[in-house]
Amino acid sequence: MNKKRILIIEDEATLQRALSEFLTSEGFEVLSAMDGEEGLNMAKEKIPDLVLLDIILPKKDGYEVLAEIKKDEKTTKIPVVLLTNLEAAEDVQRAFDSGATTYLVKSNYKLEDIVKKIKEILKM
Amino acid sequence: MRFVNDLNLKKQAEELGVEIWQTPSFLVLMLGTIIVFVMTATYYISRVYDNPELVIVSESVVVVVFLIIGNSIIRFINQVIRLNKMKSDFVSVASHQLRTPLSAIKWETELLLSKFKRGLNKKQLKNIENIDQLSVRMIRLVNDLLDVARIDQKRLVLRKESVDLCKIIEETISEMAPIAKSRNIEITSSWSKNNPKIIGDTIRLKMVVENLLSNAIKYTTNRGKIDIKVVKKDNSLILSIKDNGVGIPEEQQDRVFDKFFRSDNVVKYQTEGTGLGLYISKSIIEQLGGKIWFQSVENLGSIFSFSLPTNKPGDTKS
Fold it and tell me: Among 3.40.800.10, 3.30.565.10, 3.30.300.20, 1.10.10.10, what is the CATH number of B161-309?
């Protein structure tokens, strides 16, 4: 079976590394982007199976990235999981309205639970 | 009532953290008194001395006094608004800035405990487990404090979706089963299978149920029993969680839902806890249009209950 490809768009280096180490050891292929623009380009070029997306990002914020992923025919079907520490109901609502598959608050989720969610979404 | 309350200058000064003479109510009262006094004085002056200049001078003095007092009231209000803004900015900054490093600690320890465990001895593992638990506790504390800040500013936004309360309870019970088992506590539950859905915020209601159940577990000593019931009554569902734990002393029962409240008999042997859980739960339930209450007898146990309106038939949108 082919490895599933996950794109992590996260500017905080420690979080980025912890996530990618865990996902790699769970058998995923991991792509990392440190800002919104880089992330969006990678999404369009490499067409990942799923995107983990932070909201507060340099260059382009998560909402913009999400909107552009959903706008482009090539990437519109890719499930996007918002992974952020913002948790105000307005943010959650805005994320779902823009087409996010699900919304996870970083500090409330263990890496293991994030992987579980990813597998659920990818029906693995 | 409200008017009388507004006149309680000492209380107002304490709440606002200023001297009594600086409170808005006092300044307004002053303003009124001065108006009455000066008008009376002007009247008598104009009667005794038939001199329009004098009247003009005294009225100018009144205007100046008004301007000075009015200005200080406005300045005060501006300051309050600015402080309020700063407070809400702080809440959002703290929410993001504190949680990022806390999430990092949590994930790093998780990596150590799962993927990179090899080579660590028992002692080291125990150390890391402690760090892990403490980071979870710290995250919970930050979350609670942020919620309290939002509640106090009336900025807690709740979603109104159709919620299966019994499913939430089931999930919570299974998550807490290990802790309950480790303390030798038996949890039983009963409800009818076709209870209607209620209107609420799934995530927040789960928090409330978690809070009530974890309190019941935390404050019940060995060989305890906890019974959870959901019943339908008129247009609402009532959840009650009964324990045979330490209970709450009668003289402290009216403060149970207060912020930072922890009862004396509990603090003695359970040091962990902030006293924020029930305050937050009450705000959530009331904001969703429900009620929360309890009955308790010290040393015999407590029953905590809440009721929430059920979904109207036909309104099944989630």
Answer: 3.30.565.10
